[in-house]
Amino acid sequence: MLKNLEEVRVFMERINLTPGLAQAKPIRDSLKEHCGTDVGRCYQCGKCTAGCPVAFAMDYTPREIVRLLQLGLKEEALKSKTIWLCATCDTCSTRCPREVEPAKLMEGLRQEAKAKGLVADKRLDLFNDLFLQLVEKYGRVHEMGLILKFNLLSAQPLKDAGHGPGMFLKGKINPLPHTIKDNGEVKQIFARVRALGGEGK
Amino acid sequence: MKLAYYPGCSLSTTGIEYNMSTLAVARTLGLDLWEIPEWNCCGASSAHLTNHLLALALPARNLAIAEEAGLDVAVPCAACFARFKATEAAVKDSAETRATIEEVIGRKYEAKYTVKSLLDVFVNTVGLSQIKTLVNRPLEGLKVAPYYGCLLVRPHKITQFDDPEDPVTIDQIMSAIGAEPVYWGYKTECCGAAHPTVVPEVGLKMLKSIYQGARDAGADCIVTACPLCLTNLDMRQKEVGEQNNTQYNLPVFYFTELVGLALGHDPHTLGIDKHFVDALAFLKNKGFLNPVQNRRDSE
């Protein structure tokens, strides 16, 4: 944590905030439009960070992410691990006395970071991609297939292998994919979302 | 009372006992659960972290099918519930969003009916007094830590259910079946969702604080209403204990399992033998597996 604060301080010393503030207005407006929340309302009390169950592992705390956005330093926020580590539990948004919704900001920033190729934690991004690939293919998620594929592609094939036999014996995993009879409708949903400009995956 | 029922992906695999216990208990409570035919995955957290429209459209197809049948929807999984509610709210809020979603799913969906968590159905549709009346094996002396996690109660303006900081519905159900809910500070703390699987160095620490909280509050076990929370808390418990040189010995239950037990169902019918932390042995030691009058398994 101290290390992070130190890093922030060094980083802050290197930049000129005046042009940053000039850029901040359009960034603030665009976040308002895309995430439905106004970072300008935040008075930096830190309640979001105090309640965040993942703050201990973040490079910038939720309050610091909001501060970066207030200062127009959106690139820094987009490159952070924080936006990927956020578990979207929504505690911050529930408790914010200024009705800022940091969890919604994280969601919007993650989508933008992905679109710009600035993914700071590949594992969480990979997991989400594999999950949606299964939904598109089968209509439902085949949990065993998801975990196996994730562990293989994230280069840790034996992770969680110890839980496999127990799951199988308890009838909790099935080697066959779960599917719906005709998945054409779900495939259509993905196709139409892509056609409407969302990347849909 | 007839409701559309959306089990979701987890309830046919890692959360199979949630489905088993829900269906058994629903029969006893007089709930007619109509499984949405050919339902699809709601996209859970992966869709809304990736694409806003996809996250709204995947639940919408299921909701449209239930709407054609003219039914409110009961959702046992907290994660599915949160996604369904988000879609319901978005369609109610904006005619433009509604039109886009209808175009994407190729079906009409007007959000005419209500999405309810199964917990809500138990407390507000069936009612606590009805549950209490049907108990024939009160779970007296069982100290439970009611664990709600995130998605049943947050964001409150969308879920519209219970209190986001201090929810009480599981507590009330536990009291109705004779168990004793403990008061503790972690009832809405996040279990990490996919983090214990995907970024274990972060996720396992999140679980530790919950086990510790339940133990410090004097609970014998944890009771929840979410298949992802249960899988995390149950399957990872040994591992987290070993990392911290301790054994937590906290069986983790779905609220439907404990209600089923109290209503006189056989624990195997409820799937209580399917947990990693040995729940069956725990209940036996507590004397809750002794035969009861009016067993309900033949119903």
Short description:
The complex is a heterodimer of chains A (201) and B (299). Chain A is 60% helix and 0% strand.
Tell me about this structure.
The complex is a heterodimer of chains A (201) and B (299). Chain A is 60% helix and 0% strand. Chain A has 201 residues and is mainly alpha-helical. Chain A has 2 domains: 2-115, Fumarate Reductase Iron-sulfur Protein, Chain B, domain 2 (Orthogonal Bundle); 122-195, no CATH class. In chain A, helix 9 (122-138) packs antiparallel against helix 10 (143-153). Chain B has 2 domains: 2-117, Glutathione S-transferase Yfyf (Class Pi), Chain A, domain 2, CATH 1.20.1050.140; 130-285, Rossmann fold. Chain B has 14 helices and 8 strands. In chain B, strands 2-1-3-4 form a 4-stranded parallel sheet, with helices on both faces. A 4-stranded parallel sheet of chain B has the order 6-5-7-8, with helices on both faces. Chain B starts with a strand and ends in a 14-residue tail after the last helix.
Features:
heterodimer, A: 201 residues, Fumarate Reductase Iron-sulfur Protein, Chain B, domain 2, 0% strand, globular, B: Glutathione S-transferase Yfyf (Class Pi), Chain A, domain 2, Rossmann fold, 14 helices, 8 strands, 48% helix
Task: Spell out the blueprint of helices and strands.
The complex is a heterodimer of chains A (201) and B (299).
Chain A: H1 2-14, H2 17-35, H3 47-51, H4 62-70, H5 74-78, H6 82-85, H7 91-95, H8 102-115, H9 122-138, H10 143-153, H11 164-169, H12 184-195
Helix pairs in contact in A: 9-10
Chain B: E1 2-5, H1 16-29, E2 32-35, H2 44-48, H3 52-68, E3 73-75, H4 78-93, H5 95-105, E4 115-117, H6 118-134, E5 143-147, H7 156-159, H8 169-176, E6 180-181, H9 195-198, H10 200-216, E7 221-224, H11 227-235, H12 237-243, E8 252-254, H13 255-262, H14 279-285
